[in-house]
Amino acid sequence: MANGRNTRQIKRIRNEILVALKVVYPAALQAEPLLRSLLTLFPTLEFDELKRDLHYLTAKGYVERVVAESEADNASTPWRRRWFRLTTTGMELADRCIMDPAMEE
Amino acid sequence: MDAMVSSSPARHNAAKPAPDRRSKATASRAPVDRILPRSLVLTLKHHVRAGADVSAKQTRKLDERFGIEKTYGVSARRLRTFLKRIQPRKQVNPTDPKDAEPAESSENWQLKLQAHRERQASVAAILDATFGQFAKSHPKLWEHRTYLMLVGLVYEQLAREPDELSTTDLLTLAKVLESSRRGRTDRHADDGRAVDGHANGRANAPAKGAPLPKRFADVVRQVYGTNFQQTP
Predict the structure, then answer these.
(1) Residue B16: what pLDDT?
(2) Which of A18, A10, A96, A1 is nearest to A61 (CA)?
(3) Beta bridge partners of residue A30, listed in sequence order
(4) ipTM field
(5) Is the dihedral of CA B128, B134, B137, B141 positive or negative?
(6) CA of A79 vs chain B CAs: smallest distance (Å)
(7) Cβ neighbours for A91, distance < 8 A, ≥ 6 positions apart
(8) Which of A66, A81, A74 is nearest to A34 (CA)?
(9) Which of B92, B145, B151 is opposite residue A24, by nearest beta carbon?
(10) CB pair distance less than 8 Å for A19 and B153
């Protein structure tokens, strides 16, 4: 358990991140609007928790950051304004073409 | 409510923030603490950090007291989300099971998930009808990063819990757009125009090198308030 979330909750949130990004694929979503769309299912979700999960999914290769042309310095862009998109592997996972035990509920 | 305000010296003396004249469309996109005046944000922060409850009922009372939805177009639901965000976090022992959120019943979760999926499916249909299918045959669209990011913005507006557009209205809109798209597909087929041979019917997909959809410029104008300048 991490930061008050149980394992089931963690997996659900991560899966819903993939589902939300899958709806707009290959388009991208900013982190803040992504959080707001997830509040419907997870009303107490905090931005720090979402950020951790985005880091995790990016490191796993399921999500990638998309740098907008308007971002002068991509390193200094606030996290809430960063754009994220599914990778091809993330798309396959979201479509259940591949399985990941760490994401299975 | 007015009688209560005028009879209470403390409330009467509370600084009434000046109304913000920004349009509702603009306000709906900005964070709450940028829409509301700073003095009101500080008042709300003080209220919450003093230990006030941020239940739906209390949030509605705050809304009525300061006229937040009426004056600034911020719904009670958005206000509550904002208040919960600024509420001081309880000290939690991350390894203590008692501090974990109470387990939600499986049935409740499934119902909530089903409602959310319904809304997502409608949003996906609307995005598809508005922006067209992303097929390999039109790589020009991939070059338009604005195009792809605009789709994300539209999703964000539609997929959230409805303040202005209920799920029923969203479903109706998706069906209308879908039947309109089918009507155009049938007309193209009757005209003998080349139809994409894919089984899932991508007859309305533009040919390689085709310009952006006509409505794209309108959507940019509505979302950004500016005209879309296509680079040559």
Answers:
(1) 53
(2) A18
(3) A83
(4) 0.84
(5) positive
(6) 14
(7) A22, A25
(8) A81
(9) B151
(10) no
